[in-house]
Amino acid sequence: MADYQLIIVGGGPAGLTAGLYAARARLKTVLLEKGAPGGQVMNTDWIDNYPGFPEGISGFDLAEKMFAQAARFDLETRKNSEVVSMDLQGSEKKIVLADNTVLTSQAVILAPGARPNKLDVPGETEFAGKGVSYCATCDGPFFLKTEIAVVGGGNTAIQEAVYLTKFADKVTVIHRRDELRATKVVQEMAFANPKIEFAWNSTVSRIEGGAQGVESLTLLNSDGRESKLPVHGVFVLIGTIPNNEMLPADQLEMPEGFVKTDLEMRTNLPGVMAAGDIINKRIRQVINGAGEGAVAAMSVEHYLAGLD
Amino acid sequence: MAVDNLKQLTDADFDATIASDTPCLVDFWAPWCGPCKAIGPVVEELSTEYAGKATIAKMNVDDNPATPGKFGIRAIPTLILFKNGEVVDQVTGAVGKSQLVAMLDKAI
Predict the structure, then answer these.
(1) What dihedral angle (degrees, nearest 10) is formed by the CA atoms of A116, A120, A125, A126?
(2) Which of A136, A187, A215, B53 is surrounded by the most beta carbons within 10 Å?
(3) What pTM does this model have?
(4) Is residue A38 within 8 angstroms of chain B, CB to CB?
């Protein structure tokens, strides 16, 4: 007999919501999280678009509340449990942890999320943690009264650029196009902020620095001109890549590395659902990640009842 | 969780601690950093598992600005592994436990 009815891989908003629903359905469930629960929402300074919090809420507080709500219904959670591989083909699913523990279950919800994309330019790896950052809330305070850059034009990039003006004297937003992709309210905040400047139609081609870290960026404009921007730090906020290293690529359908699901969050494998930033979708918000987690858990209930 | 083996370092006792030939892994963190909280329990676990083999320590960068400045740390969590006062290895971000275990095992 399998150890669990359901194993949830990942403890971000999708996994925690799936856990809440599964716990309330009294499914014998364990949620596996490689660190502590929360996911990428913990990297977010402030969340103004998750309903129910009219004043907004910090990413950290929202993560804690989601965890507390699942815990209230006795969801079993294993922290520090990094999944390294899995076999999802048969009716009994096998999940292998980094310490070689093998857990089995009848159903699995994949919610391992995603992580920040990299620029992939010279200097990025060399200066990671020495001026190159992927998390504004983590690293903003290190850049008090300095000049820094943010790369990207989406919601995360522009919102965090505004946040970073709390610390930095000047924030240059480097964007490859001539307009932003971020939501209008977020754009308005950025345009109204005197500390924010824009380098339009530009990409970073090199990150330069010395022993103390980043000193400048080489920018390439779409007209072919190169220029140098002196900065102490650069925040790379250009989307995410899936945490799919532990997923069985030979079993699961994963177009471009993201797991394919139907509207009920079912993958191509019976008893295997997926939710959150790991799935093949366009919109990556806390709200739809959580919603997908709920659907995935209810689909598991359906599957376990033999209704699928 | 018992975290008796987890050392809380300050600017004052930092140099003496990392000078040892016992490898010392320092987690540079701050209370305002979400990923630092994510990796915190991993570091606590390591302090128990590596008791006697390596020193596992944390340093609050808010309370101790001198040391992070000396190592050019501008991102947290940053974890640096020291041995005989020298930097052996370094990683930034909430990495998985296995990566830290590999770092430590190589240095022991």
Answers:
(1) -140
(2) A136
(3) 0.85
(4) yes
